[in-house]
DNA sequence: GCCGCGGTTATGTATATACATATTGAAACG
DNA sequence: CGTTTCAATATGTATATACATAACCGCGGC
């Protein structure tokens, strides 16, 4: 089929006009040429500069505003905002995908499963206020033959009754839940810990070795759904987060 | 003239039409009513449903596409995307602010400062290709009397020449850079490590103890600016990230 | 001087229209 | 039968226009 690839000399992609306006302006802001507080040209001035309609300029400026680079004030104009708090997009993938991205065969193992009324600790982790039933799961995720991650999970059966009938032998609770429960909010906590004996055995490492712990609490429509704690051996995992101030 | 206002009783905020379309659709996607792969109505169908122009529908759908909820294909229509990798907004504050948020007095100490031509390791860390000059810094951040974080930093002097004249006795390199260099991209790596002797001494912990390492690389307009590695004792720090799916 | 009123201004939203572009499916052709 | 061509279709981008809305400004009346 078509070997007709862009063999043209022109390397830059053909940006649409509003994209060009947008990137022109964001460049000037990010380079510092237009400092925070600076009033950027009015729409009608940009209209003249780029010889285009106001709608086109407006599209670009609206996107800059949504991205947080500028602030728009009626009657006054648009102004460069001061740099907002640093934030990064932290990507947390499904473990299977992480493992497979490493080129290793993925394998999942359910270690334990208990259904019980929630105790004090469960209620703290899930932020429950009643002692409703929960499902406690312990699993291991393997990369090749080595344990890659240890998973301790609580599922709020009041929110996901269906889970009570699932053994989780074949399917890991993460993908199972994602497929069933639309989540609306999540909270992550990331820290380093020394492996206790239980974790050390599960991950086949020395007790006291450094581990990365990622805890996630998930809500769906105000109801706590699940709390999960993943523990990774120090060598096996690095979280990567990238951030570029959005260009719209 | 026209006092003809909608003097309706309705208390809810007056959403603009394209916002209403957008939130209607994203609600159906997030609730699971429209599963991944589902084809959402064509623009002309929504035009009929909402009795508005195609531009208005287009605005809503474009934003949904940019937010990653749907994928648009010419001639085929728009489709619900399968939930992309979970992403969370990871807040990474200035260490002074972190410490002060704990109610502890903050104190900063510069341990070492070396100006040198970049070696192989420096070039790897900064992603430099020439052996230009760099400034290597080592610092400690205290919460009260205890070391809170250890900082190892490289600054690319080709990008920030001004840094060569700064001793960093009084001001930490982080705030100093933020005040001067507009950064345009950053990359974070988060992992757990066992403290080596050097780190153990700096943080006043046992060698081999678990530590959380946050490394950040920063670019400004394509130029590498700095690489920094923060090391926290396991007990002293937890990163927290929250996520709520955006409604556009 | 102070207050209110209306006019001016810049942005916010929406419309109808036009043409470009990618993609698909079917017709035409060798 | 396979390949090429073409038209239909949905989205992508841009325009000119219109009116709404918020904020500011100055003018005039008290």
Gyration radius of chain A, to the nearest Å?
A: 25 Å
Outline of chain A: elongated
Q: Which structural class matches the secondary elements of chain A?
A: alpha+beta
For the biggest β-sheet of chain A, the strand order reads 5-6-7-10-9-8
SSE sequence of chain A, one letter per element = HEHHEEEHEHEEHEHEEE
What helical percentage do the residues of chain A reach? 25-40%
The appropriate CATH architecture of the largest domain in chain A is 3-Layer(aba) Sandwich
The CATH class of the largest domain in chain A turns out to be Alpha Beta
Tell me about the biggest sheet of chain A?
A: 6 strands, antiparallel
Superfamily (CATH H level) name of the largest domain in chain A: Chorismate lyase-like
Largest interface: which pair?
A-B, 48 and 46 residues
Distance between the termini of chain A: 35 Å
Ranges of chain A where pLDDT stays below 50 over 5 or more residues in a row are 1-12
Average pLDDT of chain A: 84
Oligomer designation:
homodimer
- Number of DSSP helices of chain A? 7
């Amino acid at each position: 089929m078509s070997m007709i690839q862009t063999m043209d000399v022109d390397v830059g992609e053909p940006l649409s006009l509003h994209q060009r306006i947008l990137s022109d302006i964001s460049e000037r802001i990010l380079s510092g040429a237009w400092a925070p507080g600076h009033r950027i040209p009015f729409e009608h001035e940009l209209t003249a500069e780029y010889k285009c309609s106001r709608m086109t300029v407006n599209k670009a400026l609206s996107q800059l505003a949504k991205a947080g680079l500028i602030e728009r004030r009626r009657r006054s104009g648009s102004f460069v905002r001061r740099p907002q708090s640093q934030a990064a997009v932290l990507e947390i993938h499904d473990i299977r995908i992480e493992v497979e991205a490493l080129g290793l065969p993925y394998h999942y193992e359910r270690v334990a499963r208990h259904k019980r009324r929630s105790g004090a600790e469960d209620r703290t982790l899930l932020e429950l206020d009643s002692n409703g039933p929960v499902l406690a799961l312990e699993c291991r995720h393997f990369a090749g033959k080595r344990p890659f991650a240890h998973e301790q999970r609580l599922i709020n059966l009041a929110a996901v009754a269906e889970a009570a009938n699932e053994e989780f032998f074949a399917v890991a609770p993460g993908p199972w839940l994602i497929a069933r429960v639309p989540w609306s909010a999540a909270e992550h906590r990331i820290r380093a810990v020394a492996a206790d004996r239980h974790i050390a055995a599960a991950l086949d490492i020395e007790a006291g070795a450094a581990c990365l712990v990622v805890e996630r609490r998930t809500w769906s429509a105000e109801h706590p759904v699940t709390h999960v704690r993943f523990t990774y051996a120090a060598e096996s995992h690095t979280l990567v987060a990238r951030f570029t101030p959005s260009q719209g």
